[in-house]
């Protein structure tokens, strides 16, 4: 049984003109690779899988900012909807942490952690590329002796740079391209884009720091 939706390397994605994309980004994107509606549909199913697996355990959901904020908010909404509409429900509290490791399109060796007062169970993340960011955070979480730590990541990149790390819940497995939108950024741009899109090489130069 599949546990993630695979976007293949030869997938051309969708033409930008078929979707609503902010005018200021029209020139910067190659294609829409995951439309917002599909992200939501997949997230709804992840919520169901998580609630099923958690039994009656209290969930402390930890959002990894900034790139994880859209996925986290939608995932929480779907978990809340399940809690409201079924006989079984899981108590849910939230916390936020900020991690920073990227400059331009390159992962840096230094992962900075900012904030978060109670480090615990379900961690919601935007994308796992090498896995280094998540491994750093997991080491930190284990120092707090939580009962259980589960990681939900919307995206996992297929890349030879991977450390082999795999999250517990994966939305999509994606090609080794730089993706933006739905809170994923390139030097802080493109978080204000609803769909997940492939960034053009020209835009990488244009927004370089
Ligand atoms: P890792 O440590 O290599 O797994 O990188 C994970 C982090 O790098 C993510 O949380 C993102 O902030 C950033 N990142 C990696 N690939 C992309 C991408 O394609 N688009 C936007 N951010 C990315
Ligand atoms: Mg980033």
Can you walk through the features of this model?
The chain is of the alpha/beta class. The chain has helices spanning 36-54, 69-85, 132-142, 201-206, and strands at 5-6, 29-34, 59-65, 92-103, 106-114, 122-128, 150-157, 169-174, 179-180, 196-199. A 7-stranded mixed β-sheet has the order 1-8-7-6-3-4-5, with helices on both faces. Helix 1 (36-54) packs across helix 2 (69-85). The longest helix is centred in the first third of the chain and has 19 residues, at 36-54. It is globular. The termini are far apart. It binds inosinic acid and magnesium ion. Inosinic acid binds at residues 67, 101-102, 107, 126-133, 157, 178-180, 184.
Key structural traits:
209 residues, 7-stranded mixed beta sheet, binds inosinic acid, binds magnesium ion
Beta content comes to: 25-35%
Total number of β-strand segments?
10
Could you estimate the helical fraction of the residues in percent? 25-40%
What spatial form do the alpha-carbon principal axes imply? globular
What kind of sheet is the major sheet? 7 strands, mixed
Tell me the distance between the termini. Answer: 43 Å
Bound molecules: inosinic acid, magnesium ion
What pattern of helices and strands is seen along the backbone? Answer: EEHEHEEEHEEEEH
Helix- and strand-based class? Answer: alpha/beta
* Total DSSP helices: 4
| Rg | 17 Å
Overall mean pLDDT stands at 90
Strand order of the largest sheet: 1-8-7-6-3-4-5
**Regions with little confidence, pLDDT below 50 for 5+ residues:** none
